[in-house]
Hints:
Blueprint: H1 2-30
Amino acid sequence: xxxxxxxxxxxxxxxxxxxxxxxxxxxxxxx
Length: 31
């Protein structure tokens, strides 16, 4: 159970990271 929760946290972090990188790419494209 703990391992699954830790994996979920890591996946959420990756999702946030990917979203941040995606926003950065979009803002760079606009400039």
